[in-house]
Amino acid sequence: MKKYLYSNKKLFISSIVLSIFVVLSDIGIAFIFKRIFNFAHEGTIIQFKRLVLFSLVFVSITYIISFLQQNFQARYIKNTSVRLRQDVFKKIINKDILNFSGKNSANYISILMNDLKIIQEDYFNSIFDIISNIFRFVLSAWAILYINVRISICIFIIVILSIYLPLLFSKKISNCKKGYSDSLSKYTIKIKDILSGFQIIKSFNIEEKIIDEHSKYNKNVEDNNYKYKKITIVADIMSNIMGFALFFTSLIVGIHLVISKKLTVGELIAITQLMNNIKFPIITISSKFNILKGSKPIIDKIEKILNSEKSSDKLIEKNEFNDNIFFKNVSFSYKDDRKILRNVSFTIKKNKKYAIIGPSGSGKSTILKLLLGYFDNFDGEIFIDDINMKLISKEYIYRLISVIQQDIYMFDSSIEENIKLFGEYSNEELKRAIKLSGLEPLIDKLNGEIKTKVGENGSNLSGGEKQRVSIARSIIKNTPIMILDEATSSLDKQTALNIENSILSLKNTTCIVVTHKLNENILKKYDEIIFIKEGEICEIGSFNQLMDNKKNFYDFYSSTLDSKYKGCVTPV
Q: Where is the ABC transporter domain (predicted)?
């Protein structure tokens, strides 16, 4: 975090220098009070008037310096917070899919919204408060020492006791702060989960149960917040007690010295004024030190993200797809010992069209996820143009491959932006994508208003319309490899056939399609059909070849016609 503390050195140093001037001004006011009260005994009216005028000018300058100092500090914290949040967000967004999916996305939301706010308030502000109050304490102590040595000795004795005080509470405060941060993260996860399932909650009339569930997490947050506040209140009260002891002891000693004629009333008033610059810094430093210690677990959490390396940083670049994709004895399981894929081997040749077909749960979508680099923990090898895919940067894999998935996410923006996804494309490219994806009827219905907002996650569009937007965004990307994972499942039969025909007619594009809609006319257009069951490749060939074989694919295809599935036999 030190990197960010010194990231805006000019503003940081300016704020510190101005805070020193503020402290000097406050000390100067104490000496002005000393002169005013001494004039009450020995000065003239003219001298008194001049001193009052000087005091007013001096105080005005003090407030101007104070304003500048607070403004510089606010600008520093703003700039530093913007950079820190941007860097954390960049690290999160640059994670690969496997590492990102390792945590609930609400964890990241909590870090960006809650933890960074805590860092802003409890780290950066505390640093400034501690530095300025150290200067305030040191310079004020020197001023009191200049006025009277005996009172200074009393002050230093109590200060030594006060320095030890924060150490008694720092560990407890740190643990409570971490507990509060963790509970906020859990609460954010729960809220995201609840709001995402709002339609389910309403449809199944489980509002009361959800309210009770929310109540548990809500109470947990506030319980942890209360624990944190309770321990900081105790620490602050102890600091206040030490501050009062400091002030009261010095005041008693000062009055005694005045009575003994060893101190003037003006000097006592000045010391009393300066005592505020001793008392409050001790209280503030003690409190801020505990807050600073308490924020350490959160700082560690954020620094863990900041220090994480982008997985593709040391991988190679690949800008072209020249020959083929080869799966060699690939086996994979998600978390348990159950194999999703077993020794899968096949070849995808450039510009050819492939359909991956099989029963539900056979591993079709898993093959696509491995090809997209979602998981690296598989056995066997996947090659792209004879290069092991694990050695290729994910960034460049996604430049080669575009994917159309069954589950579509829509940004709360226009139809145009959801197709372009912030890319720069010509009007001709946009029109082509709209035509091939079957979006023209929707655009016509909207009177050509392609900038129409789609709403949160496409709430203003039907499922089929969202699917067409997803297809359009992949077509406009114009990658050499296109993957479709049940991409036309939410479309009507005729629209699905039209779109699949359009995609299969794309030139210079390698297509890999997972589908459950088995239309003979469409299947005949694929160069090869890869039939898979229970994680194993049973057959590979053209539609006519597989039908002539009358084995695995033949039985499965026939079952879709007569609703009688005969199963997958072992290939000869």
A: 325-559
Map out the domains of the chain as residue ranges.
Answer: 2-306, 324-562
Q: What is the dihedral of CA 57, 61, 63, 69, to 10 degrees?
A: -170
Question: 539 pairs with which residues across the strands?
Answer: 531
Beta pairing partners, 530: 356, 540
Report the 10 Å Cβ neighbour count for 250: 25
Structural contact between residues 515 and 483, judged by C-beta atoms closer than 8 angstroms: no
H-type alpha helices, 437-565: 440-445, 463-477, 493-504, 520-523, 543-549, 552-562
Classify domain 324-562 by CATH architecture. Answer: 3-Layer(aba) Sandwich (3.40)
Which CATH number fits the domain 2-306, given the four candidates 3.50.50.60, 1.20.1250.20, 1.20.1560.10, 3.90.550.10?
1.20.1560.10
Residue 278: CB atoms within 10 Å? 26
Q: Give the mean model confidence (pLDDT) for residues 121-135.
A: 88
On whether the pTM is more than 0.90, the answer is: no
Q: Which run of H or of E encompasses 269? A: helix 265-294
Give the model's pLDDT for residue 313.
53
Give the type of residue at 318.
Answer: K
